[in-house]
Amino acid sequence: MSSSIGEFRRYRERMNERILSSDNLGIKRFFALDTRAYEKGALTTKTKEMLGLVASMVLRCNDCITYHVIRCVQEGVTDDEFFEALNIALIVGGSISVPHIRRAIEILDQCREMQKKHQAIKL
Amino acid sequence: MSSSIGEFRRYRERMNERILSSDNLGIKRFFALDTRAYEKGALTTKTKEMLGLVASMVLRCNDCITYHVIRCVQEGVTDDEFFEALNIALIVGGSISVPHIRRAIEILDQCREMQKKHQAIKL
Amino acid sequence: MSSSIGEFRRYRERMNERILSSDNLGIKRFFALDTRAYEKGALTTKTKEMLGLVASMVLRCNDCITYHVIRCVQEGVTDDEFFEALNIALIVGGSISVPHIRRAIEILDQCREMQKKHQAIKL
Amino acid sequence: MSSSIGEFRRYRERMNERILSSDNLGIKRFFALDTRAYEKGALTTKTKEMLGLVASMVLRCNDCITYHVIRCVQEGVTDDEFFEALNIALIVGGSISVPHIRRAIEILDQCREMQKKHQAIKL
Amino acid sequence: MSSSIGEFRRYRERMNERILSSDNLGIKRFFALDTRAYEKGALTTKTKEMLGLVASMVLRCNDCITYHVIRCVQEGVTDDEFFEALNIALIVGGSISVPHIRRAIEILDQCREMQKKHQAIKL
Amino acid sequence: MSSSIGEFRRYRERMNERILSSDNLGIKRFFALDTRAYEKGALTTKTKEMLGLVASMVLRCNDCITYHVIRCVQEGVTDDEFFEALNIALIVGGSISVPHIRRAIEILDQCREMQKKHQAIKL
């Protein structure tokens, strides 16, 4: 029912390398556009990552939620901010998103545990 | 590809406690509203749980399906009633919901097995 | 922002005839299966139509909502039963389904108006 | 293909009144929770409305988009901020959300037009 | 319940121009990637447009369906091929996609009418 | 984060047998219609399986993706064709489908490995 942050990172890294080693230009460019969308502009990266988190919540994708929770932690989102963002996702997306709230909080707690131990939270 | 009812219950219980221990009033109230929506009113709880099951099927959330199958069993939904409700979910939601039909029946069979052994089906 | 029940019926009827006049057996059989799924079995047609309504609500399809509201009215669903079913759809599906709650109630009110005038509610 | 802000507001207002005049407590409480979720807390209302907008974009609900664009304008979201938020919605949600980008910009342009004429943008 | 091909084209053209006149590079590049994805490669444009049509059907976006039906007609998709592709969309996506089957056939019929009159089918 | 093709096949086979052993005619007929939709007609089975794959990608169902990747391999879809189809799914469905692209490629690579060893790829 849950998988560790490390396992997620290794799978994601390995498969992304595999996908980007293909000859398909379209997919490569999409991945580049995806990265760039969260770079600081008129909005901060922190705000953008919260937008990405809420979008992932209401579309109910656990891997995407894991990714954006980690990125939000890296950008300094506080627990209160997390819960307020998740509350909006819950109101917009309904009880069908409750299992994903559980997932998000589980990953958040793992990140906070790592921070207490001064471990780097990498992606 | 499957996880036991017990594993689901423990994870759900642990994470719900964690979520409700936060200070976010909105999320707590949502959880309360969610519970109350299935209480007997003009419609029976049995009918309401079938509504919840079909909604979970067409939105394709395995944890929600697990929860509502168990609740339906507790409310006395028969096998024929289950299959008719799942048939409606299949017609409305299409073949993309077939893996979730498998999941629902797997959980149903686990519940029936427990009932044969006179085991309590708790949530 | 709204369209009358009559307009919906005529469009639906005309296009269904057009679709069923094609040579595609698969689509014709799907339409037949769809009709049969709501026939009385272990569950009443009334319960099945409410299942169809809630499924249409959480999947957010206005034409499907219009159809199932009318069918529910024909099967004798009361206002209290409607609101309880819609409440479950709202809890499961979230605020993104609010515009569809509006639609459902608008159609329900049109049906009640027709019933007061002893007009037949046809599909 | 488009409807004016005024028409949206009148329909929304009329139907919300109708819905809240019913006896269903669950729905009334959901509406109250929905309103409260966007109130200032650890996150500003402006940030929360952008979260609501992006959630509405990826779930592809035009009425919800219309509502949140108007609320974002009221909270002072700039054009650059709008386009960056919409870009994230587009990347996460894909080309299927392009028609909703069109809708969002159409409403935004109507709001800016009203602001130029010093008209109040009400909901 | 329906809108003409011409109305769709004019709205789409006007709003795309508006969107691409903004300074947001991300959105512009996404639009370019989107166009390129359907260009002939290992798969023909005809096959790719059918993939786009079925994707639009199961995601239930009328504007996207309108666009891909027109593109499929331009690429020479026959009526039998259309109905077989729509049948797959119907089986995968379920009865919730029936209103979109109606829409697809309505647009197809408008295109065939234009072809009979030797009118150009533009986008 | 991944499960082998063999595990998928055994679970699918076992549960399909269980489901088809029930008395529910509607579900049995749906399964039959589902199979028939991919049979050669005006479109080849290869094209139809690619339509099924893209539909499964944008609806984000890993089991359905696993099934259609295997069927596409059986029908002779080349790697270039796969990546072009996945690129369309990615453009239409957005970054939320990236985890499913990973899944599709993982299954594809397992199939290619089996082909190198002259192992039958069964379903």
General description of the model:
The structure is a homohexamer of 123-residue chains. Chain A has 123 residues and is an all-alpha fold. Chain A is 74% helix and 0% strand. Chain A contains six helices and no strands. Chain A has helices spanning 5-20, 25-37, 45-59, 62-74, 79-93, 98-116. The longest helix of chain A has 19 residues, at 98-116. The mean pLDDT of chain A is 96. Chains A and B meet through helix 5 and helix 6 of A and helix 1, helix 2 and helix 3 of B.
The most extensive contact between chains is: A-D, 30 and 30 residues
Oligomer: homohexamer
Mean pLDDT of chain A: 96
Return the string of H and E elements of chain A: HHHHHH
Tell me the total number of β-strands of chain A.
0
Poorly predicted spans of chain A: none
The radius of gyration over CA of chain A amounts to 15 Å
Q: Count of DSSP helices of chain A?
A: 6
| Residues in helices of chain A, as a percent range | over 70%
Q: Beta-strand percentage of chain A?
A: under 5%
Shape estimate of chain A: globular
Structural class of chain A: mainly alpha
Distance between the termini of chain A: 21 Å
Query: How would a textbook summarize the main sheet of chain A?
Result: none
